[in-house]
Please model this.
Amino acid sequence: MDFKKGDLAFSTSFATVENENIIDKRVGRSLSSKEAEELTEYLIRNLKLGVQFDFKHLIGHKGILVFKGNYSENITSVDPSYKKIGKFGVHTLSEKEKLNEARALDPSSNY
Model:
């Protein structure tokens, strides 16, 4: 996939939707490569975004969407666990996700 300065790339995930609600943002991690390729082909043929784009399935439920053009790098994420640091979106940890204690798996080890 070609990528040039000004193009805007997004990491994507195929999701499971019921009644217009996302119930699993990773399709149960059970999407076969064949199913993902069929969805990719369908999206490329039928998705009308009003801009030139490329879409590619990567592995499992993951893909990449690239808008072709002269876009700004100054975008934000809708994922509340990410914040922008400089030019990069960085995953931040909630208090619940932070490591409170670390112990060696083998208590007799010197680590």
In short: Residues 8-71 form one domain.
